[in-house]
Amino acid sequence: MASKYLEFEQLLLHGFKQLQLPLSAQVCSQLFDYIALLQKWNKAYNLTAIDTTKEIIIRHIFDSLSIASFVRGPFVLDVGSGAGLPGLVLALVKPEINFVLLDSNHKKTLFLHHVALMLKIPNIIVATSRVEKFHFQTCFATIVTRATMGISAIIEHTKHLVCKDGRWLLMQGKFAKEELTDLGKSFEVHKLIVPELAEERHLVVINAN
C-alpha cells in the first residue's frame, strides 16, 4: 500500500468493522487506488466536491457501504452512478453480484471505465444513457440511486428495468414522507449509520410488487 495512505488505513479498518464488513488486503488496496484516481481525475472532470482522502472515505466509501446488507443480486443497477457511488464501491465488497453503473454524462462513464480497467473489477458494467431510455439484457433485482431525483421520478423512469420481485434502494439524507404516502407500493425506511459521519442518512426500500 502506498505510504501516503498508511495514516488512513486505521480509519478504513474501523469503518469496515462498524459496518460489519470484512476488509481484505486486496479490497483495501483497490479502495486506495480508487481514491487516488478519483482525486486525479477530479481536477479536470469535476466528479465530486469532496476531494480530501479522509472525506472521500467517510462521505463516499462509508456512505456507499452503509447499504451493503440491503443489496440483492444477481444484477444491480446504480442509477446516476457519477464517480461510481455507490455501485463501484459496493462491487468491490460484493464480488458475487453484477453491478451496472449507469450515467448520462460521458466524462463520468469514461472515468468509471478507466477505474474498472485499472482496478481489474470484473463484476461491473458501465453504461452511458439516460435512465428512461436504457435497456438491459435482464431485469434488475435491485435498483439503487443516491439522491439523484425524486422518489416518484426514479420509480417512473426505471419501472421497465426492475424485476417483478425486485426493489428500489433510495439513499437520502432527510426523506420526503409525503412522496412515500402517494406511491401505492409497500416500503420501509431505515436509518443508516455511516461511520464517522454525524449527519442524517436514510434508506428508502420500495418493493416492486
Explain how this protein is built.
The chain is α/β, with parallel strands linked by helices and 209 residues long. The protein has a single domain (3-207), classed as 3-Layer(aba) Sandwich (Rossmann fold). The chain has helices spanning 6-18, 25-45, 53-65, 87-93, 106-119, 151-158, 177-181, and strands at residues 75-79, 98-103, 124-128, 140-146, 162-172, 187-191, 202-207. The chain has a seven-stranded mixed β-sheet with strand order 3-2-1-4-5-7-6, with helices on both faces. β1, α4 (87-93) and β2 form a beta-alpha-beta unit. α2 (25-45) packs across α3 and α2 (25-45) runs antiparallel to α5. The relative contact order is 0.14. The model has no long low-confidence stretch (mean pLDDT 93).
Span of the ends, CA to CA = 46 Å
Q: What gross morphology would you assign?
A: globular
Number of helices: 7
Question: Biggest sheet: strands, sense, closure?
Answer: 7 strands, mixed
Structural class: alpha/beta
CATH topology: Rossmann fold
CATH architecture annotation name: 3-Layer(aba) Sandwich
Q: Order of strands side by side in the largest beta sheet?
A: 3-2-1-4-5-7-6
> What is the CATH top level name?
Alpha Beta
Number of strands: 7
Please report which band the strand proportion falls in: under 5%, 5-15%, 15-25%, 25-35%, 35-45% or over 45%.
Answer: 15-25%
Poorly predicted ranges (pLDDT <50, ≥5 residues)? none
Average pLDDT number: 93
CATH superfamily: Vaccinia Virus protein VP39
Q: Helicity, in percent?
A: 25-40%
Element pattern in H and E:
HHHEHEHEEHEHEE
Q: What is the rounded Rg?
A: 16 Å
Number of domains: 1
